[in-house]
Amino acid sequence: MTSDNPSRNDEAGHTADRQRTIQHQQDQKDAAKPSVNAERKEAAQAGERKHPEPPMPGQHLDKPGMEKDMDLQPQFLAPNYKGSGKLQGFSTIITGGDSGIGRAVAVLFAREGANVAIVYLEEHADAQDTKQAVEAEGGKCVLISGDVKNPEFCREAVQKTVQEFGRLDVLVNNAAFQEHAETIEDITDDRLDQTIRTNVYGYFYMARAAVPHLKEGCSIINTGSVTGLHGNGTLLDYSSTKGAIHAFTKSLAANLVKKGIRVNAVAPGPIWTPLNPADQPAEKIKSFGKSTAMGRPGQPEELSPAYVFLASPICSSYVTGIVLPVTGSPG
Predict the structure, then answer these.
(1) 178 Cβ contact partners less than 8 Å away, ≥ 6 residues apart
(2) Marked catalytic residue, from 120, 203, 205, 238
(3) Span 178-207, mean pLDDT?
(4) Model confidence over 195-208: pLDDT tens digits?
(5) Is 318 in the active site?
(6) pTM of whole model > 0.85?
(7) Exposure check for the chain: N or C terminus, fewer CB within 10 A?
């Protein structure tokens, strides 16, 4: 299902084209540099089932990145997670919900009794797969394609969700653009604009559109990043936006606390999603996640329960303004 507004589809396609142009410019620079292989170390497993360890598949995806095209599919179903009605009857929106972290969150929200609106750019096949996964859990799902950089689209997405489900209880801001750069000179004005407007403006626009519909007990969850906590030398613009998201989270939490609306963030470490093979060169992605203390990337299903915790007033009614690190490393 795509947007019923052709101009929104054109806008989303234009943004995806701009992202691919930025990516291809960086790819050309990467091709001229020698690859560096990280040393092998044992990865730690601490969950209910084994998760993949480096070396990861050496694959490079065209932006915005399709989960269905990944050689190694991310683990998102969390088969050992049992729902208990923590979000029963809730209406939720997840931006960037077609794949990766957003897909895993959508599945667990539905397992906990929620209906889910998936906002995404133009990855229609991935979005349809996520819709099927949500509906398999018993939840209703609506797909809304468009560009969160557009404030009018954000208002339309919120309004459509309220029309479909009759209410709005949880907004998850998760859409993101990321492209590495070896030097600050590599970050063009267009790339900087794309990153900041998607990652910061998009969060602000969605929150601004959602707040009038949120009542006491409702919540907003923003996806931050470990790069927003510690920085990253090759993700200058992306890390800056994630730091801004953390500050936005704390500020909006202070602004909305008297209304009984909680605002929190999750700060993931390296998680195996289309975002990263669509950023890093194929050779470099083989060592993705290896530098964590656990020696491997996380899987979306290892992150999604944190979103359930923060979304549910049963679990976190006294939690607001936090940035919850889920990074595979201490500190």
Answers:
(1) 195, 235, 238, 275, 276, 279
(2) 238
(3) 97
(4) 999 999 999 999 99
(5) no
(6) yes
(7) C
